[in-house]
């Protein structure tokens, strides 16, 4: 009898058997939440659920008998790229701790559920998140700061009845600028005067982007000198103002110079400026609930011949 095919066939079944065991092992480590389906990259929770907590994977460190590296829930969570949740009526708040393990997350859908609020900085640990669908919830307000560090291609907000206030003016601006595909959505807000106002038609007084100005456009100093630059942020609501000087080598201090009714001024003092900072772009930002404005100063440092 010709048995030349047996090694290949046996090898196939051996690989299949090992894959099956590893697959079952992975699922057990994943600890897929109730009423959800999970695989290596997705968590799908499309069945109605009465729980009020965000669905999290449950797992534990699992060392192997041959001394290889253990598998833990952190490693598994970072491979999740998509989370889909629907009909979770008691899920009211999305917390930062709910999201922090999903560092590889790209798509988040929480739709037709009971979501009322999202904790500040909830998406700080999700740098790859570019698609968010929050349609059909109970959101009455939402801050643009949640999405400040993200590069959103789409943000779906339909079928939420927002409060007509300055807090959602940024949504109107994003619609005008056609950001995150908001311009194609019918979004509404309610107030004491009206029950169904299109956000695109919202008209709120004293609610605009900050205006910003700096004392220098270009700053030229000699190595070892000190320098002071002033940044003024104005507008209503009054913005927070600060200098962004990450990776600046020179010693620097920030000091609020004045905080009048509609102007917030802050000084940046550079001490003993070093030539390592030649060509550095000093950036000042002004932020309020409507959005952010910025201005930059180019630093030129002359150093004596060595």
From TrEMBL:
SUPFAM superfamilies: Immunoglobulin, L domain-like. GO terms for biological process: cell surface receptor protein tyrosine kinase signaling pathway. Keywords: Disulfide bond, Glycoprotein, Immunoglobulin domain, Leucine-rich repeat, Repeat, Signal. GO terms for molecular function: ATP binding; neurotrophin receptor activity; transmembrane receptor protein tyrosine kinase activity. The keyword Repeat applies. GO terms for cellular component: plasma membrane. It holds the Pfam family LRRCT_2. Residues 210-300 form the Ig-like domain. This is NT-3 growth factor receptor-like. It comes from Thamnophis sirtalis. The gene is LOC106554229.
